[in-house]
Specification:
The complex is a heterodimer of chains A (about 375) and B (about 260). With about 375 residues, chain A is mainly α. Chain A has a domain at about 100-170 and about 180-320: MetI-like fold (Orthogonal Bundle), CATH 1.10.3720. Chain A contains 16 helices and 2 strands. Chain A has helices spanning about 1-25, 45-50, 60-85, 90-95, 100-130, 135-150, 155-160, 165, 185, 190-215, 220-225, 230-260, 275-285, 290-320, 330-340, 350-374; strands at about 170-175, 180-185. In chain A, helix 5 packs antiparallel against helix 12. Chain A is flat and about 110 Å long. In chain B, about 35% of the residues lie in helices and about 25% in strands. Chain B has helices at about 45-50, 85-95, 110-120, 125-140, 155-170, 185-200, 215-220, 235-240, 245-255; strands spanning about 5-15, 15-25, 30-35, 60-65, 65, 70-75, 80-85, 95-100, 175-180, 205-210, 220-225, 230-235. In chain B, strands 8-9-10-3-11-12 form a 6-stranded mixed sheet, sandwiched between helices. A 4-stranded antiparallel sheet of chain B has the order 2-1-4-5, with helices on one face. In chain B, strands 6-7 form a two-stranded antiparallel sheet. In chain B, helix 3 packs across helix 4 and helix 5 (about 155-170) packs parallel to helix 6. Chain B is globular, with a radius of gyration of 19 Å. In chain B, about 50% of the residues are buried. Classes of the chains: A mainly alpha (about 375), B alpha/beta (about 260). At the A-B interface, helix 11 and helix 12 of A face helix 2 and helix 3 of B.
């Protein structure tokens, strides 16, 4: 097969390569051939006969082979999904919507959502502090980011969990005067500890994302806002932040996906999130370990996919003003395809119709030019 | 509505580099002044100093008899000094001074109408009133039908006209224009200069930094030639542009034209 291709290529290139050196200048020679096209010795009789036919694009057999190999490997794996009893699909079906799993899922969602909101708001505050011209504020913000980016999340969580033994009571009051104190364990429930721990470390990352976004906004925008005399807060909320969001959103959504998965660490502070429930159930039903892991995988996949869909639309919204025309959403494209009528997909009949229309336009164009020339 | 502008003993340095080196200038109310000068002569910095976008190291700017960005205070040692105002007051002063940037600096996420209405809304004008006035201003610069368009979808000339409308929205007594046509394709310069010429006739005090010498001769009452942060020569355009006295002015004009 390879050999044929090689010979073919030789057949194509050799005459060309051999002659082009000597005959190239003839291409522009003025004497015309009988059929009106300029005489050119590089184009022989066969070449002239082929002029009317469409050019055949290069084929890519290796692409087809590679795709086939990958598909065969993949199908082999897919086959095992059905043949290997150990996957335990009936058990997956049994567990997927079981109350225990759904309770864990709920906790994962609540902890992630709360931490995401808190870390976004907190990230803006820390970023503003970091960008402030006040050296104490910006130094503190830097120190905060330094601390919580350096310490592993699980350490933060376990630390908070044991806060009760470090400070048995939390109190506030006049220094050396009367104090108001409550036991630490009463104030901080397990969920609060989990959310605080997740947020503390997420705020550090979110603040850097927000700071990068604010720095990416053109300096002229700050100046224009100042020149208009907009109050400080309005400069940020109305002018700077909306533009910064364009670069903040993709990075922050990435953080949220990470957060979603990091919430599985809550298991270590005795919170039963999705992963925690799966862990517990696996020790109770050791035969269902694999199906339970599959259930957890499916749910995490579903949650991440949902986040991605939201991200797509939020990014479209933040892109307004930065691109001239937004591309249609998949739904809009689908609707347009449906409106065009069944069986006429772009690339099929439509494209042919378009080509025909273009051809007509060209012909019409040439004829008018000819008319004008005459 | 217009106001006088006074610049007194202005000095500004960026590190070792002295950009404005002792400028005194007094511009009557309703006048149109063009500042000419080679690049790096400090003309943009001087213009930005007028609305305190660039705080001076020494000296003071007055607009309509009010010191901008600073006020004089006598310290405990009995020595009077100019002290910077709180930011809130500076922002309020800026809202009475229009500024047009070389690169327009329109807010890309807002429509043309929202851009123009933003300043008035921020300063407390009811949104409906501000939007109606913004529409009138857009019509005045010939863009009455483009209110719902975002800046990226406008040509450079249209963007700069929106920026001029935005600068006028707060009914400023003074409008400063920093090379308003330098970022435009040549065929778009005319429409912007037309809008500025109309503005010059309306009686607002204008200060324009530009390289358009022909336009300066047509519109300006007063031309200032700046070099190395100092005023080399100033006078009516007929005198300064057609019959420059100083060799550096002559040299500059011969290269620009």
């Amino acid at each position: 097969m390879t050999q044929t291709t090689d010979t073919e290529r030789d057949a194509v290139t050799r005459p060309d390569g051999a002659r082009s050196g000597t005959d190239a200048h003839r291409a522009s020679s003025p004497n015309g051939s009988p059929d009106g096209s300029p005489a050119d010795a590089t184009i022989d009789a066969a070449g002239r006969a082929a002029l009317d036919r469409p050019v055949v694009p290069l084929r890519h057999p290796l692409r087809w082979i590679a795709a086939a190999v990958v598909l065969v490997v993949l199908l082999n794996f897919v086959e095992t999904l059905f043949t290997n009893e150990q996957w335990g699909w009936p058990a997956v079906g049994k567990w997927l919507f079981s109350p225990a799993i759904l309770t864990g899922l709920q906790l994962t969602l609540v902890a992630t959502a709360l931490s995401a909101v808190i870390s976004f708001a907190g990230g803006i505050v820390v970023a503003i502090a970091r960008l402030s011209r006040n050296p104490v504020l910006s130094g503190l913000a830097w120190g905060y980011v330094w601390l919580f980016r350096s310490v592993p999340l699980i350490l933060v969580l376990v630390f908070l969990y044991n806060l009760g033994s470090l400070y048995p009571t939390i109190g506030i009051g006049v220094p050396f005067g009367p104090q108001l104190e409550v036991p630490t364990a009463n104030v901080l429930g397990d969920l609060a500890i989990g959310v605080i721990g997740l947020s503390l470390s997420e705020i550090a990352y979110a603040s850097e994302i927000v700071r990068a976004g604010v720095l990416a906004v053109d300096h002229g925008q700050h100046e224009a806002a100042q020149a208009l005399g907009l109050p400080r807060r309005r400069q940020f909320v109305r002018v700077i932040l909306p533009q910064a969001l364009r670069s903040i959103v993709p990075a922050f959504v990435n953080q949220i996906v990470g957060l979603l998965k990091a919430s599985s660490l809550l298991f270590y502070v005795s919170l039963l999130d999705l992963f925690g429930v799966v862990q517990n159930l696996s020790s109770t039903y050791p035969t269902d370990i694999i199906p339970l892991l599959v259930v957890a995988t499916l749910w995490y996949l579903a949650l991440t996919s949902a986040v991605s869909v939201v991200q797509y639309y939020v990014e479209r919204w933040t892109a307004r003003g930065s691109v001239r025309a937004l591309p249609p959403t998949p739904f809009q494209r689908l609707r347009a395809a449906v409106r065009r009528g069944p069986g006429r997909r772009p690339g099929g009949a439509d494209r042919r119709a378009e080509a025909a229309a273009a051809e007509r336009a060209v012909t019409a164009g040439t004829s008018t030019t000819n008319d004008r020339a005459i | 509505m217009s106001a006088t502008i006074g610049i007194h003993g202005a000095v500004k340095a960026f590190g070792e580099n002295v950009v404005i080196d002792g400028v005194d200038l007094s511009l009557p109310s309703g006048s149109v002044t063009v500042i000419l000068g080679p690049s790096g002569s400090g003309k943009s910095t001087l213009l930005r100093a007028i609305n305190h976008l660039e705080p001076l190291d020494r000296g003071v700017v007055t607009v309509g008899g009010e010191t901008i960005g600073v006020r004089v205070r006598t310290g405990r040692d009995g020595v009077p000094r100019y002290k910077e105002l709180p930011e809130r007051l500076i922002l309020r002063q800026r809202s009475r001074i229009g500024f047009v940037f070389q690169h327009f600096n329109l807010f890309p996420h807002l429509t043309a109408l929202e851009n123009v209405a933003e300043g008035p809304i921020a300063s407390g004008v009811p949104a409906a009133t501000a939007r109606a006035r913004a529409q009138t201003l857009l019509e005045r610069v010939g863009l009455g039908d483009r209110g719902a368009t975002r800046p990226r979808q406008l040509s450079g000339g249209q963007q700069q006209r929106v920026a001029i409308a935005r600068a006028l929205a707060l009914e400023p007594s003074v409008v400063l224009l920093d090379e308003p046509t330098s970022a435009l394709d040549p065929e778009l310069v005319g429409e912007v200069l037309g809008v500025i010429a109309d503005l010059a006739e309306s009686g607002t005090t204008l200060v324009i930094v530009t390289h358009e010498v022909a336009f300066a001769r047509e519109v300006a009452d007063h031309v200032v030639f700046l070099d190395h942060g100092r005023i080399v020569e100033q006078g009516p355009p007929a005198q300064l542009i057609d019959d420059p006295q100083h060799p550096r002015t002559r040299d500059f004009l011969s290269r620009v034209r």
